[in-house]
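Researcher: Re-running this chain for the archive, since the previous output was lost when a drive failed. Same request as before.
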Amino acid sequence: MPDTAAERTLGIILVSASAAVFGLTGVLTKSIHADPLTITCWRGFVGSILISLYVLSRRQSSGRESLRLGWRGWLLAIEGALASIAFIAAFKFTFVANVAIIYATAPFLTALLAFILVRERFRLQTLAAAAVSLSGVAIMVWSGFGTGHLFGDGLALLMTIGSALYMIMVRAFRDTPVVWAGAVSAFLLFVLGWFVADPLAVSARDAVLLVTFGTSFALASILWTEGARLIPAAESGLLGSAEVPFAILFAFLFLAEVPPAASMIGGAIVLCAVFAHAGRDWQAARQRSA
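Model: Regenerated structure tokens:
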């Protein structure tokens, strides 16, 4: 919990800024002509360097940041790398709105998988919100049949399941340096790219965008990490949900991308469920702290 109102305000600003920067992912991915693996390769390289510098600077100032991953940290890094590949590839095969909205269901999939895998109980409120949001996703995916976007929607769903598993592992591996594992995950993508793709076969324009992409990825991660330290988890979750409308707005402004009616209807259903659930958590947290 923050000690002062100024710290809370700073936390809100940082987490909101993180959501806005994360919302650029779809625009940047679609603006780069390179294949998804090359994109993840350079995004991982630039991002891993910047995040590593951040982690090392925090470790130097606080002396508490551990760099020991262990098998749990390596598992986090590998799982995160696989989810990142699916995430970037999904944008290449479907609408930015579809990927962002499907990803918005991650908290609900996390609750479901946590119950199945580790018997972690969830609230009826979460179950109801999950049912509503999944119905919205079903509308979007059903509309993808015969349009060529079904593969991208499937990748987005696969990525969301991977992200849900990642969140469960983060909670289970509490002593693991998560941010450092993220840096290692990004570097693994860079190494994989050299073995499978040709990372140097990019245009000067794409090179600039790739560096921008890696920088934005690191910046968003750092902003979230610093901001989430200053505000309650429920509030950071609510503010983080703003990534979805940011992604849709940026896709419209920079790519002139307007998703089909089914995506808009399904997306509206998902967003209502996500914001209603996050809003109730935020209100409950405020009442407890009053």
